[in-house]
Amino acid sequence: MLTPNNSPKVKRKGSVRRPRAGSHLPPFSPESHDAALYAIRQYLKGRNSYDTFPVSFRLIVLDSKLEVRKALQCLLNNGVVSAPLWNSERSCFAGMFTVSDIIHLIQFYYYKATSTSYDTVASDVEAFRLESLRDIEKELGVEEPPLLREHPSASLYDAAKLLIQTHARRVPLLDHDTETGHEIIVSVLTQYRLLKFIAINCGKEISQLHMPLRKLNIGTYVSPVPIEGQEPFYPIATASLSTPIFDLVHMFSQRGISAVPIVDEDGIVVNLYETVDVITLVRLGAYQSLDLTVSEALHQRSSDFPGVVICTASDSLGTLMQLIKKRRVHRLVVVEGDEEEKRGGKKGRLLGIITLSDVLRYIIGDVAIGSSLGESLERLTPSEEVTPPTPPPPPTLTEESAN
C-alpha cells in the first residue's frame, strides 16, 4: 500500500525548448503592399455591380414633381439620406436628391429670410418641387452635381473610376426596358458599399495593406507650417462648441464637405458635426433654430448616433478596411497619438481627416492619367507574381438601403 511516506519518487525529464515553426505568411514589404493593390484592382475588373447587391434591400425613388416637404419626410420615414429622382413626364432618370440639396435649401432660406418673415419663407421652401433644386444651386453659385449613371453590368472597377472622376459619393445604376426602351433605376452603388464589398471578398489582400495611412498620403492633413491669414487647422474646416449651426451650414454648402471636426481651445477633437445632424433639426421643424450653437444642437442629436471614429496616422490601410467591414463608417478623424506626443505633440489633437473618397481613390489608383492607367498598373508587380483572389459566390450582406 502506497502512503505519502513510502510512495516512489517520479523523476521528471528536463524541459527541452522546441524550435518555433516558421511562418507561412509572406513578410510585409512595399512590394507585397503593391501586389495586394494590383490583385484587388484585377478582382474589381472581373466583378460587376450586381455582385454587390445585398440579399434584401429597398430602393426609394422620388418623382421630380414632388414637393420638397413630402420628399424629405419620405427619406426620414425610410431612414435614408438620398434617393434617385424620376421624371414621370419623360419617363427618365432625373438626378439624385441628397442631403446636400437640403443644405442648399436651408442656406437659400436664410438668405431669403432677410427680406421677409421666417414663417413665409419656411412655407415657400417646403413648397419647392424637387425639379427646382438645380435653380436654387444656380442662385447660390454652387456647383451643380453631375447627372452621372452606370449600367449594373459594368465592372466595379469602371464604376469606382466614375465615382472618383466625378467626386460623387454614389452612382445610380440604370438599365433599359427592352420593350419600351425606357430607363429603369435598378439600384444605387455607394462608396461605402463598394469598399465593404472589397473588405469582405479580398481578405487576404487586405491583410497585406500594412503601410501607414499618412505614409500613403490617404486623407487631408493639417498643414505642418502655419499659413498667415489661414485657419489654425488649414486646410481642414473646424468649429468649436460655441459656433452657430448656420456657420457650419455655410461651410457644408460652399466647401462641398459633409462633416466638420469640433475642437477645443487646444485643438483636441471633442466631437464631429455632420450634414445629417442638420437634417435632425429640419425634422423637428427647426428652421429658425439654426442660430443655435453646436453645443446646444448636439443635445438634439439622435440617440443612435454611432459616435466619432478616430485613428492615428500610423494606423494601416488594412486596419481601416477591416473597420469598414465591421461597421458603417463614412469618415475617420485622424488625431495625434503616442508617436506625435513623443515629438512634442498633444494626444487627441486634430491631425487630419480621411473620407471614403480618399480610401477609394487610393485603392483604385490615379484615374486622371487616362489610357496610361493600365500601364501603370502593370508596372506595380510582374503578373506571374500575383494571383488574383478566386471569385467567391455572391456575398451575403445585411439589409442595406440604396444610399
Automatic annotation (TrEMBL):
Provide the alphabetized UniProt keywords. CBS domain, Repeat
Q: Answer yes or no on keyword Glycoprotein.
A: no
Q: Where is the CBS domain?
A: 143-205, 230-292, 304-369
Asked if Repeat is a keyword of the record, the answer is yes
Gene Ontology MF terms: AMP binding; protein kinase binding; protein kinase regulator activity
Which branch of life, at top level?
Answer: Eukaryota
Question: Can you name a GO cellular component term?
Answer: cytoplasm
- Biased composition of type Basic residues is found at 9-21
Residue spans making up a coiled coil are none
Q: Spell out the residue ranges making up region: Disordered.
A: 1-28, 378-403
Similarity field: Belongs to the 5'-AMP-activated protein kinase gamma subunit family.
Q: What is this protein called?
A: CBS-domain-containing protein
